[in-house]
Structure formats: structure tokens, C-alpha cells
Amino acid sequence: MYVNVPEIWLRDHCHCEKCFHPSTKQRLIETFDEIPADISIAPNGLFEDAGMFRITWNNGHQSSYDKGWLQARFDSTNSSRSVERQGLVELSLWAAKDIKDKPPAIDYDEIMASDDGVKDWTRLVRQYGFCYVDNCPPSPEATQSLLERIAFIRHTHYGGFYDFTADLSKGDTAYTQLGIGAHTDNTYFTEPAGLQLFHMLSHTDGEGGVSQLVDGFAAAQLLREEEPRAYDILSRYCVFSHASGNDTSSIQPIRSKPVLDHDGCGHLLQVRWNTTDRARIDCTVDQLQSWYDAARKWTDILKRIEYWEPLRPGRPLIFDNWRVLHGRSAFTGKRRMCGGYINRDDFISRFKMTNYGREQTISPVA
């Protein structure tokens, strides 16, 4: 297959040692300062040799391009490139009945022993959207070390790695004993955290606080099949959110986003749903009723497939905050929780590097 590639693109992607750093995979030239606008292949400057295209340019520079490398850049569709960048796998969509008897889990020692354990752990999270870790020492130190096996912990207005009880030390219902409906965290951030981990270290003198998980991608698929108009509305009409419970801050995203957020190729990328933190619905007055009707159908589906399971000491729960909604029932007594956030890009990088290796991970972009 031959594609009419602009010559400036070819010259811009020269990987010789003068143009491209072999270790950092970064360009060493300033494209628009150092490559002339009239760059072109010199007369008789293109020839094929052992699977390579070799080019001499009109300014004397020489470049070589592997045919397979070139083909990979123009053979795949935008959709497949999107899959590569997201690190998409064949997702296992689930309702409570599918996973209640055998939810995804991995042993703490396996994760801590080597990157093979991290590989298996991140693949389970990518596939199911959540994973339990068995036999973790019930301490904040062990839990923090576990989370840092993936990446740096994200700092927010809650701090970094958090260790808290229901004392309202932060202005959020998470710091109370109230029940909390199914939601995703950080809808008030322009980019919500990618992963969240909870570890209940203790629960004394009370009961309740059962954790709720819902596969948002499974719910979206059901909504699309059963109520396509509602799916379209929640994919197009946007919503603002805010976090204003602390005296020193009111966090608001720079733009509104839909409940069901897709990438440019139509893949569902993220679920953003938090009625507690919801602010203005960013649509016209005549569209408001349609949004509420669609949202009601959405919440009905969430309830149909929700999964309830108590947290317990020694068994942290990690989940994909862009896919899986979480909540809890009200509780009495004193619970001590710890955990933290991981950025989305850091999680996907760690997943791809451990599961696919460096060369396959960077080949679509370098």
C-alpha cells in the first residue's frame, strides 16, 4: 500500500541521531525553525533497500524509514489508534450476579514481589474496573506502599495518601457516617483521578457501611440498548460540578462535561456521575426536562446491576474512577479508612508498560 505522505511529515519524523534522541524518544530539532518550508526529496533521492526507504533531501540531509514503521502509521484507522493509546483490552462488563461469587482479586505479596504482579493487578483493574487485594497488612504504611506500586499518589484538597475517620475534618460527606449513593469522584476536577483505593483498617462499636460498586460501562451499554435517546442526551448535554465544602476553596472544572464522555472515535472514555456535587446543567431551559428524564433512566439501570460487599481489614479495594461508580450504606461506630488517588495517565502508562512492554507501548507515538 502506498500513501501520498507530505514530505514535511517525512522529514519531521526522521529518526537519525541528529534529529531524534534514541533514549528519550524526543525530537532534537525545532521543526519549524530548522526544516525549510520548501523541503523536498532531492532528484533521484529516494530508493528502497532491504525493507527500508532511504531519502536524500534537497538540503543534503539523509533519512531512513522502516517500511513496517511507516505502514503502521497509515494502515490503522483512527479508531484502532485510539484503542492503542487508551490501552483498551477486551472489557468484562458485569452486574452483581456476574461477579458476586468470585470478584477479581490478587494477593498482596504477588504485587509487592515483582512487576509481574503489577502486570496482573493492573490488567484485572483494566478488564473489570476494580480489584481486591488479599492479605494486605492492615496498616496505612503497607497500603501506601501497595498503591505506589502503580504510580505516584495524586495530591488534592484531601491531601495525598489519606488516613481518616468520619470526623468531618474535610467538608465532604465521605467524612460522615451518612450513606452515599453510587457516584464517581472528582467530577469537580477538569480531569478526575483515574484510580482510587480504599482500605478499611478498622470498624469498631458499630455496623453498616457496606460498599457499593456499579460498572458504569455496563450500565451505559444497557442504557444505549434500552433507551438510545437517553444515552444520546447524557452523552451530549453537559453538567458542571463543584467542591465547596472547605472554607479555603471552591473547586470547579474549567468546562462542563457530559455524564457519558466519549473520545473522538466514539469510544466511551469516562463516566462522570455525582449528584451530590452536581451544579448547573449546561443546557437550555427547554432541554432540562429531557436531561432529568434521561438521568432517571440511568439511575434505574445503576440500581439494577449494583454490587454490594463489605470492606474488611486486610483487603484493600482499588477501582477505575473513570468507569466504576462507588457508594456506601450508612454506618454507626467508628471506621478508620486509608487510601489515595492515582492519575489516569500514570495508571494507563503503568498498565501498558507492564503488560505490553516498552517498545509496543511507544511504537504508536514515537
Automatic annotation (TrEMBL):
EC id: 1.14.11.8
One biological process term in Gene Ontology: carnitine biosynthetic process
Domain TauD/TfdA-like: 105-341
Keywords: Carnitine biosynthesis, Dioxygenase, Iron, Metal-binding, Oxidoreductase
Reaction(s) catalysed by this chain's protein: N(6),N(6),N(6)-trimethyl-L-lysine + 2-oxoglutarate + O2 = (3S)-3-hydroxy-N(6),N(6),N(6)-trimethyl-L-lysine + succinate + CO2
UniProt cross-references to Pfam families, sorted A to Z: GBBH-like_N (PF06155), TauD (PF02668)
UniProt cross-references to Gene3D superfamilies, sorted A to Z: 3.30.2020.30, Clavaminate synthase-like (3.60.130.10)
Pathway: Amine and polyamine biosynthesis; carnitine biosynthesis
Recorded GO CC terms: mitochondrion
GO molecular function, one term: trimethyllysine dioxygenase activity
Domain Gamma-butyrobetaine hydroxylase-like N-terminal stretches: 5-70
Function: Converts trimethyllysine (TML) into hydroxytrimethyllysine (HTML).
Family from the record: Belongs to the gamma-BBH/TMLD family.
Name of the protein in question: Trimethyllysine dioxygenase
Native species: Tothia fuscella
